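Reopening this one. Same input as before:
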Amino acid sequence: MAHEPGPHTLDAEAVRTWSSLALAALGRAREDIDAINVYPVADADTGTNLYLTAEAADRALDESLAGVTDPTAGPASLAEAVRAYAHGALIGARGNSGTILAQLLRGVADVLGAEDADPADPAGGAPGPLLARALTRAAEEAYRAVAHPVEGTMLTVAGAAARAGAAAGTAAATAADVARAAYDGARAALAETTGQLPALGKAGVVDAGGCGLVAVLGALWQALSGQEPAAEPVRGPAVPLPVPLDPEPCGQEQGGPAYEVVYLLEASDEAVAGLRCGLDLLGDSLVVVGGDGLWNVHVHVDDPGAAVEAGVEAGRPHRIRITHFGDQRRRAAAPRAQRAVVAVVPGEGLAALCGEAGATTVLARPGEQPAAAELLDAVRRAHAREVVLLPGGPELRAAAAAAAEQARAEGVRVAVIPTRSAVQGLAALAVHDPEGSFDEDVVAMTAAAGATRYGELAVAESESFTSAGICQAGDVLGLIDGDVAVIGAGLPETAEAVLERMLGSGGELVTLVLGPEVPDTLAARLEAYVQHGHLAVDTVTYRGGRWSAPLLIGVE
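Same output, byte for byte:
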C-alpha cells in the first residue's frame, strides 16, 4: 500500500511510510543491484531478495495496522507497527541479504518496540537518541547473526550507519536528524566497500547488499523528514560479471558450496545455539536470525539434506527452499522463453506432475499459503516473456494479482486465470498451447478451467455448522465448488456421493487426485463406480503426494 511521503514524528505512521518508501526504492533499484551482485556468490539475486523481503515486511505491516479496528483503542502504537514490520521481514526473508535485513529490522524493533520506548512520552526517551539506539542495536544484532562477519559487506554499511546515527543522536536531535546522519554514513561506507573485498575490487563494484541497505536508510530519512534523497545510480561493474555457461557438475563455479538452503525454524534458543555450530561445520554464509521461538536459517552447503536434517534435530523446519547455484546462473544466462505457465499446487506429487508438463510450480502447504513474493519469484524463475499464472484457489487471487502487477512492471506479459482448485489448473494446463497466440492460449485455458467442476474431501476438525448441516469432529466433508454438500462417516461412501452429485449435470472426464494416506483401492473403487453408472465418462487418477488433501475430484 502506497503512502504519501511527508515529515512524520517517530510513530506508527512513520514506520508505515518508511516501509512503503523502502519497498518502492528497492523496486526501482532491484535490477541494478542484481547486476552488481558478486559476493558471496555471483548469483545476480541480491536486489530481488531484498525486494521480496521488504515486500513481505510491508504486507505484514499493512495487515497488522488494518487489524486495529477497535475505535476505543486509538491508532496503532509505534511498538505494534515496528514489531509487525520486523516479524514480516523474518517470515519472508530471502537470501543472505534479505536475512540480514530481517535481523536489522529486528534490532530496530527491540528498541522501538520496547514497552518503555515512547517518543511522545518524555520518560520514553527523546526521538533522536531513541532512533540512534535502535540503529546501534540493529547493527549489533546483524553482526551476531552472521557466523563469520566479513567487512566490505552489508554489515560494514550497517555499522557505519549506526556509528553516524549515534554521533548525531544528541538530546536535542530529532529522529530525522539521526536518520539523515545514518544515511550519509551508510553512503560513505558503501563507497569504500570496493576496496575492502577483492571480489568487489576485481569487478569494480560496491557491495550489493550494502547498496540495498542505503536505499532502505534513505527511505527512513525521507519518511521522517519529507525530503527525497537524491537519485544516485548504482555503481555498475567495470568488467563483465562472471556468468559461467558450463559450470562444473557439483555447481561450485567459484569454489564455494553448491546449494543455498533457507528455512523457517521453530526451536528454542538452546537448540539454535547447537544448530549454529552444526551448520557452521557443513558450509558457509551462515546467517541465523530471529528469536522468541521462531528463526530464519540461511546457509550455503554442498549437502542440503544434511542442512535440513540439522534443522529437524533442532526443532520444526518449514518453508524450506533449496537453490542450486549452477541452475540459478544458467537460468540468468539463458535467453527468455516465449511463454511459461506458473501453477500453485497443494501437494508434492501434483508439483511433479505439473513440472513434467512444463509448468513452474509453487507448493501450497496446509496453513502456509504462498505470498505474492513467492508467486513473483516463480514468475521470474519461469524466465519467459509471457506467463500464465494459475493461483489454484480464491484465497490466492489477491496475491496472484499483486505478483502479476509487479511482473508487468518488469516487462513480463502476465495473465492470471482465476482457477479455484488444483484440478481446474490441471484442466487448463492440459490445453496449454505454447505455440499459439498468447490471447488464444489464455482463452482456451480459461475455458477449460471454467468447464471443470471441482470437489474435495476433507476431515472435520471440530463440530461446526455447514451448508449441509452440522458436522462433528472426524466427519468426512464432501465439498463441491467450495461448499460442503455431503457429510459422511467414511471416505469411500462420501466420495461416491460427491461424484454422483457432480456427474448429475453431465461430464466427460473425471480426475481423481489421491492424498498421501489414501489407498489405491479407493481409486479402483471410484473408477468402478463411475464406469458402472456413467459408461461414457473416462477416469484418470494421480497421486497428490505430501501436503495434498485426502481427495480432489474434477469433472470436465
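So the earlier flakiness isn't reproducible anymore. For the record, The first strand starts at residue 259 and ends at 266.
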